[in-house]
Specification:
24% of the residues lie in helices and 35% in strands. It is an alpha+beta fold. Strands 1-2-3-4-8-7-6-5 form an 8-stranded antiparallel beta sheet. A hairpin with a 5-residue loop joins β7 and β8.
C-alpha cells in the first residue's frame, strides 16, 4: 500500500478471508485494511480510504490491489473528453511508471493500450493494459480527471491453463 498508494496501513485494522474455489472462481486470499472506527468516520462525513488486496493462495502472487473511497465523486467522461484521453499519452506513461517504479516490475513491456473505454467512460475511469513479454499483464485503473490510481490488477500468463 505504501508503494502503490503512499498509504500507511500500519495503523489500520486488518481483516482476512480465504474465498474457497467455487462457481468457476479460484481460491483467493482477501486482505482488507481500514481505519479503526471506519463506520463512525463515514457517519460523521469524514473521507475514508480502505484498501483491498487479493492474493493467489497457491503462488502468493498479489493479483489485485484496490484503493476504495466511497465518497469519491465519479466524473463521467463525455465524448469530447474521451477523444482527448485517447490522444493523451500521459495515461499510458503513468501506467508504465506505476508498473515499473512502484510495483517494481522487471520484465519487458511489449504493449500498452487503453481498455474497456466505453464502459470506463461511464464510470469515470481510465484503464490501461500493460502487457509483458511472458504474456502476463497488469491493468492499471485511474480515476478521471485526477489520474489517481484506483486499482492495479495482475493476470499471470498461465491464467486459465
Amino acid at each position: 500500500m505504501r508503494k502503490l498508494y503512499d498509504a500507511d496501513v500500519s495503523k489500520m485494522q486488518m481483516a482476512t478471508n480465504l474465498r474457497k474455489a467455487e462457481y468457476g472462481f479460484s481460491s483467493q486470499w482477501w486482505v482488507y485494511f481500514s481505519p479503526y472506527k471506519e463506520r463512525t468516520m463515514r457517519g460523521q462525513g469524514q473521507e475514508v480510504w480502505t484498501y483491498n488486496v487479493w492474493i493467489d493462495p497457491e503462488t502468493g502472487v498479489v493479483v489485485d490491489t484496490t484503493a476504495v473511497n466511497l465518497a469519491a465523486i465519479r466524473t463521467p467522461i463525455d465524448e469530447a473528453a474521451a477523444k482527448s484521453v485517447q490522444k493523451d499519452p500521459s495515461w499510458i506513461k503513468e501506467a508504465i511508471r506505476i508498473v515499473k517504479d512502484k510495483q517494481g516490475e522487471q520484465r519487458k513491456i511489449v504493449k500498452t493500450y487503453l481498455t474497456d473505454t466505453e464502459v470506463n467512460n461511464k464510470r469515470g475511469m481510465v484503464a490501461v493494459d500493460v502487457l509483458l513479454e511472458d504474456g502476463s499483464k497488469y491493468n492499471a485503473e485511474f480515476r478521471y480527471p485526477s489520474m489517481m490510481l484506483r486499482c492495479l490488477i495482475y493476470e499471470p500468463a498461465d491464467k486459465g491453463k
